[in-house]
Amino acid sequence: MMQEPEPLPPLSQVRTQILAQHVGLRRRLAQLDELAAAVLAGQTELLMELRRQTVDLELTLLAHLAFEEKHLLPRLVGIDAWGGVRAAAMQADHARQRQVLSEAGDNATSAAQGPEALGKMVRALVADLLADMDREEKDLLSPDLLRDDIVVIDQSDG
User: Fold this and answer.
1) Is 157 contained in some domain?
2) How many structural domains is the chain composed of?
3) Least C-beta-crowded within 10 Å: which of 52, 66, 78, 81?
4) Residue range(s) defining the domain that contains residue 63
């Protein structure tokens, strides 16, 4: 006997969950940026903690991307006339982010990466991820786009 697929949560709930994850991610990114800045300022005793937190961020962000792909991506495709374009852009962004995160994790665990190189890389990573979240919130997480009803916004009749 086949099980019925798990019902999808309402779009407004998915949006709320992703935005809440973004709040937590921004907090972690700010802490990581401060840690990288301290290492760059000469506090090399913090290097191992910077390495650990960078790898931890990689794992956290991979889980976040998986959540978005499970709950948001399949629903973007049919959301409006631009849904397919939005979904393709999200997939491309996530592929690029996975590559960047993989490189960051590799660099964080490499003894060849000294304090200056790792600090600079982490600060660039933080800036990149913050920009990605801002763009995603603007382009994919608008409350006008992720609605639970099927009313078309700003449609005129006749």
Assistant:
1) no
2) 1
3) 81
4) 11-139
3-state secondary structure of 96: helix
Tokens of 13: 């709930």
Average the pLDDT over 72-97 and give the result. 90
| pTM given for the model | 0.86
Contacts of 85 (CB under 8 A, 6+ apart): none
User: If pLDDT is split at 50, 70 and 90, which confidence band does 92 have?
Assistant: very high
Under a CB-based contact definition with an 8 Å cutoff, are residues 127 and 56 in contact? no
DSSP 111: T
What confidence tier does 148 reach under pLDDT thresholds 50, 70, 90? low
**Residue located via tokens 């982010």:** 97
At 6 the three-state DSSP class reads: coil
**146 secondary structure, DSSP code:** S
* In-domain check, residue 153: no
The pair of three-digit structure tokens given for residue 112, joined into one six-digit string: 């060849």
Question: Rounded to 5 degrees, what are φ and ψ at 51?
Answer: -60, -50
Taken in order 19, 96, 93, 35, the sign of the CA dihedral is positive
